[in-house]
Amino acid sequence: MRLFVALHPSPTALAELEAAVAPLRTGWPDLRWTGQDKWHVTLAFLGEVAEDKLDQLTVRLGRAAGWHQAQQLWIGQGGAFPNQKRARVLISRIEGDQPALAAVTALAGSVAAGARRAGAPPPDEGRRYRPHLTLARCRQPTDVSGVVDALGGFAGSAWLAAEMQLIRSYAGPKPRYETLQGWPLGRAG
Question: Domains in the chain, ordered, with CATH?
Answer without folding.
Answer: 2-184 (3.90.1140.10)
